[in-house]
Write a structure and sequence with these properties.
Layout (H helix, E strand, L loop, with lengths): L1 E4 L5 H11 L10 H10 L5 E5 L2 E10 L4 E8 L8 H15 L5 E3 L6 H10 L18
Parallel strand pairs: 4-5
Antiparallel strand pairs: 1-2, 2-3, 3-4
The chain binds coenzyme A.
Coenzyme A binds next to strand 4, helix 3 and helix 4.
Length: 140
Amino acid sequence: MIIRPMTIDDYDEIFAMWQITTKRALSKADERSQIERYLKRNEGMSQVAVTDGKIVGTVLAGHDGRRGFIHHMAVLPEYRRRHIGRKLAKKAIECIAAEGIDKTHIFCYQNNETGQNFWSSFGFKKRDDVFVFSFNNEGE
Ligand SMILES: CC(C)(COP(=O)(O)OP(=O)(O)OC[C@H]1O[C@@H](n2cnc3c(N)ncnc32)[C@H](O)[C@@H]1OP(=O)(O)O)[C@@H](O)C(=O)NCCC(=O)NCCS
């Protein structure tokens, strides 16, 4: 298994993967043009895990100049519990740290127990003092 930076040429494969792993988190922000823009803005930071030429894991990593953010941390079901996710997360955090950003946030659905266990085991601290408020220019 290797971990390498994600490129826009990976788009079809990763989008197909996300249909399996992260479907409810997908939005307009995951269209090809938006992912291309994201990868350009955060060059070299997002990663894929590849086994036998197949992408089996992804992580989108970036920052806004102040805080790091990780999205679409995902591993195909048949490849889970082999620490592929942990290796991807580690690389993402290293890339964010290399940009001089110390703190990284992730969003995790309240009923995603696996996600919460995963991030807690990595050392992320669950916040009980913060709500996420979102504003959408196009309405709900
Ligand atoms: C979350 C996810 C990326 C984890 O990927 P993974 O490669 O299986 O994770 P790892 O093998 O690196 O696990 C690292 C640690 O996380 C914890 N963990 C991972 N999956 C777990 C599970 N199902 N139950 C309990 N703990 C779990 C464990 O502490 C594990 O270490 P251990 O196996 O030595 O006990 C994967 O389950 C996934 O793609 N889920 C669907 C998408 C998702 O929910 N992403 C997170 C969004 S917030």
